[in-house]
Design the sequence.
């Protein structure tokens, strides 16, 4: 009752412009909220104070999310002292950390002052957290090839993919996959970013079993060759992982994972590619991975300002003979800048260094898998080491605002924000590979591309990208993606 009454009173208070103090301009965040600057109101209420004491902090709207999750993101507590000149930026920085938990459609902050003491209110609108998604896909490369097969209805994958976010209201996540049919997959993962009052230490665990009737077994002309077996499975993989998480805030996370892997390919795979694995058709290994991420972007789904840095060290120790151990170093850094008005600039660089005396085909992956020079989507570039530089200029083309859908009562779905951005980009990449097959010409060669794109951002962190890219090989095409490219 107290929080609801306070929310009502905040709506009746005079606006910041009536205080006679100029408002501080903040960049409009991608969640498209229209907010008054919070410190102007406080200055109007307590104009003669250089510092304020935080008397009360209230949270409204968190019906599922526990307050301990929200308290862990704030860098101040009740009883702390805040400086008047930086109050607005401090409240906004904390608001963005709450929003970047990716648990809410929107987060609002407001503050009132009396005799130098602050009452701060964070109001959140929770998302829908359970997503069961049916799986139904064709096991062939396209619809035409599937339709031409007499056993077409036996060549489908079906099942259920379930994600439960904010499990128990603690920002935990459960993910399960049950996929049957032509390709089989059974997976269960659990992620808890932090426990306790300060939510500093968390855990992660998972198990995966996968086998498929198709496998990309080699690279020729910088494209993958695929082997399909109707009555056998050319690849079978299973692994189990367990790890610790050290989490300062949503912006800084370090993960340490250890996992056991068991993989096996059919004799047909080794017949076509004897080096798919080193040492035979089966291998087992332990992997130790340390990943540290610093994410200071204004929003995680579609960043416009801020920076992102990630460093990863992986050690793979083989339990089967024939393959030497592998040490892999990966790094990534991205910077996002506001150029003024509706223009923004982004630049990102990433690199990989793989240290080993010999490497199997399955481990010799560089660009075209997770990292990509846009415009080279049809190719994969194998190699131990790679570097990638991407940059782009973004123009905020159209902010539709929030569309209200009639007939839906729940606020989790009936309000859809839509923002369109126009983007131009240029990518440069390079893969270093000591030994290259004569049919593959893209390793040890500078890769470059440029293009234009239209980005659509909406709720639940969905980003849809339609882009035209043209590469150095004078090839161009339209591509559709579902994530922010840098």
Sequence:
């Amino acid at each position: 009752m107290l929080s609801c009454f306070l929310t009502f009173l905040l709506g009746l208070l005079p606006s910041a412009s009536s205080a006679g103090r100029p408002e501080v301009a903040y960049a409009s965040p991608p969640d498209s909220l229209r907010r008054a600057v919070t410190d102007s109101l406080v200055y109007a209420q307590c104009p003669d104070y250089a510092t304020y004491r935080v008397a009360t902090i209230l949270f409204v709207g968190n019906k599922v999310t526990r307050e301990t999750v929200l308290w862990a993101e704030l860098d101040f507590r009740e009883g702390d002292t805040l400086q008047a000149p930086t109050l607005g930026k401090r409240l906004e920085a904390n608001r963005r950390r709450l929003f970047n938990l990716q648990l809410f459609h929107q987060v609002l902050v407001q503050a009132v002052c009396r005799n130098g003491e602050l009452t701060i209110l964070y109001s959140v609108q929770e998302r829908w957290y359970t997503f069961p998604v049916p799986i139904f896909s064709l096991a062939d490369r396209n619809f035409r090839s599937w339709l031409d097969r007499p056993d077409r209805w036996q060549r489908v994958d079906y099942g259920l993919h379930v994600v439960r976010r904010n499990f128990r209201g603690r920002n935990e996540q459960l993910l399960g996959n049950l996929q049957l049919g032509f390709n089989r997959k059974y997976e269960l993962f659990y992620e808890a970013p932090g426990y306790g009052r300060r939510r500093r230490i968390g855990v992660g665990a998972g198990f995966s079993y996968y086998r498929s009737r198709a496998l990309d077994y080699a690279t020729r002309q910088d494209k993958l060759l695929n082997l399909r077996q109707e009555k056998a499975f050319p690849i079978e993989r299973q692994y189990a992982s367990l790890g610790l998480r050290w989490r300062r805030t949503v912006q800084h996370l370090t993960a340490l994972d250890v996992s056991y892997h068991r993989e096996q390919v059919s004799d047909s795979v080794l017949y076509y590619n004897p080096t798919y694995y080193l040492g035979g058709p089966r291998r087992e290994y332990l992997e130790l991975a340390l990943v540290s991420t610093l994410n200071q972007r204004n929003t995680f789904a579609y960043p416009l300002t801020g920076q992102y840095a990630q460093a990863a060290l992986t050690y793979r120790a083989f339990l089967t003979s024939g393959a030497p151990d592998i040490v892999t170093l990966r790094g990534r850094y991205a910077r996002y800048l506001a150029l003024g008005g509706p223009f923004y600039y982004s630049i990102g660089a990433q690199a990989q260094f793989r240290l080993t005396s010999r490497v199997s085909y399955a481990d010799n992956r560089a660009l075209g898998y997770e990292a990509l020079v846009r415009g080279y989507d049809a190719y994969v570039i194998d190699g131990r080491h790679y570097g990638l530089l991407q940059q782009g200029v973004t123009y905020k083309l159209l902010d539709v605002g929030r569309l209200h859908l009639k007939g839906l009562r729940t606020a989790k779905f009936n309000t859809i924000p839509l923002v369109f951005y126009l983007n131009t980009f240029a990518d440069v990449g390079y893969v270093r590979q000591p030994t290259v097959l004569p049919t593959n010409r893209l390793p040890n060669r500078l890769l470059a591309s440029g293009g234009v794109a239209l980005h659509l951002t909406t709720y639940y962190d969905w980003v849809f990208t339609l882009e035209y890219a043209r590469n150095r090989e004078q090839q161009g095409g339209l591509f559709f993606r579902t994530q922010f490219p840098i």
About this structure: Confidence is low (pLDDT under 50) at residues 1-30, 32-36.
